[in-house]
Specification:
The protein has about 375 residues and is an alpha/beta fold. It has a single domain, classed as Rossmann fold. The strands form 2 sheets. The chain has a 5-stranded mixed β-sheet with strand order 1-8-7-2-3, with helices on both faces. The protein has a 3-stranded antiparallel β-sheet with strand order 4-5-6. Helix 3 packs across helix 4 and helix 3 crosses helix 5.
């Protein structure tokens, strides 16, 4: 389900001034293969980014550095070191690393003290070799899919340390800090009718929302529109994040995407079940029959237009390949750019009262039965 929500001042997309847009999608923990649900989010964000750039100044912020301090990542690093010792991960496959992650999620959690050295090293830019290996593999998939790389392998620290972020929240009247009595820290938006949300556990460990605030609080005031793209199951947290960022000035939009069911069931990657269905395997299967451009366009047709924003349809490999086949036909029929029809004008038709271009509306438009062949400039700029 897609939730479009805006709090703050309303931008005017029809003015001559170019607006400043920040795209801030949820990150994928670098500990497993890219599943169909991950691919859906990545392709959705990529089309939004590339389609909005002709209309606005767009920043795509996607920093793994920011979210390494979460227990989900640090705990995995500690677990593989404790159970495997000094292992060389350079030749590990995504499946093999994913299996380690499944084992980790089923094991007992390490205490906070065991994770502290990893947190300190991560703040300085260190990344565990097991995650470095995954990120390098993902970089290859990004290239094959024509995805913009927002810096998978770069050190991109957030603008605020945790303490500074909490101070900003306190100044906004949005922080309830119980650390002086050995308790946790809460985000307090109760005056807006939202429940207390823990940010930092009593043992000092921050959660994903705390990390997001470290990154987005200093960035948000520099933009007219902030777009949050995320898993619909995290909607309560993103309602909270929206309210905080709106207090800093920008219009804030939430775009929620449903996960992709596998055989009718929504499965978390922590339980496995992604064998032969992750990015690497899907790319290999498509390469056996189609060229690079057809695969790039076909993947976008399937994960955006066919699956849509919700979670009603289970993943189907045969339907994905049909979309790649359809993409090959569209590419072959692609027409010249209309002399009097600017690309920016055509893209602007696929947005409402927001600055960003809606990927679903734009991509679905390619599949109309009586639509003219898509212009080559649109395909090249947005989909290839």
């Amino acid at each position: 389900m897609t939730t479009l929500s805006m709090v703050g001042h309303r931008p005017r997309p029809d003015t001559a001034d170019r607006h400043r847009v920040l795209l801030a999608p949820i990150t994928v923990t670098p500990s497993k293969p890219l599943t169909p649900s991950h691919l859906k989010g990545l392709l959705w964000t990529d089309v939004m980014y590339r389609a909005t750039r002709p209309l606005a100044d767009v920043t795509y912020r996607y920093s793994h550095t920011t979210y390494h301090p979460t227990e989900q990542t640090l705990g995995f690093w500690e677990f593989v070191d404790r159970t495997r010792g000094d292992t060389d991960y350079a030749d590990f496959t995504e499946d093999r690393i994913g299996e380690l992650y499944v084992t980790f999620r089923a094991a007992e959690r390490a205490p906070a003290a065991a994770l502290r050295p990893y947190a300190e090293a991560a703040e300085l830019g260190w990344v565990h070799p097991v995650s470095t290996r995954i990120l390098r593999l993902w970089s290859g998939h990004y290239t094959a899919l024509g995805l913009h790389d927002p810096g998978l392998l770069r050190h991109q620290p957030p603008g605020l340390c945790l303490e500074a972020a909490l101070e900003r929240l306190t100044a906004l009247g949005m922080c309830l800090d119980h650390r002086d009595v050995g308790g946790p820290v809460y985000l307090d938006l109760t005056r807006f009718g939202l429940p207390l949300r823990r940010l930092v556990a009593s043992d000092g460990r921050p959660n994903y929302l705390a990390c997001a605030l470290r990154e987005l609080i200093p960035l948000a005031p520099d933009f007219d529109e902030v777009v949050l793209l995320y898993d619909s199951e995290l909607d309560p947290d993103y309602q909270q994040l929206e309210r905080v960022l709106a207090a800093l000035g920008p219009s804030v939009r939430r775009v929620a995407m449903g996960r992709v069911p596998i055989e009718g069931q929504i499965r978390s990657a922590r339980h496995g079940g992604w064998q032969d269905l992750h990015a690497g395997a899907l790319l290999d299967a498509a390469r056996a029959q189609y060229d690079e451009d057809a695969i790039r366009l076909g993947m976008r047709l399937y994960f955006i237009a066919v699956l849509g924003p919700g979670r009603q349809q289970s993943f189907r490999s045969d339907l994905l390949l049909q979309c790649v086949k359809r993409a090959a036909r569209l590419l072959e029929a692609a027409g010249p750019t209309p002399d009097s029809d600017l690309l920016a004008d055509r893209l602007a038709r696929h947005r409402k009262d927001h600055v960003y271009v809606d990927p679903y509306r734009l991509t679905s438009n390619l599949l109309g039965k009586r639509r003219a062949a898509p212009p080559a400039d649109l395909l090249r700029t947005v989909f290839l």
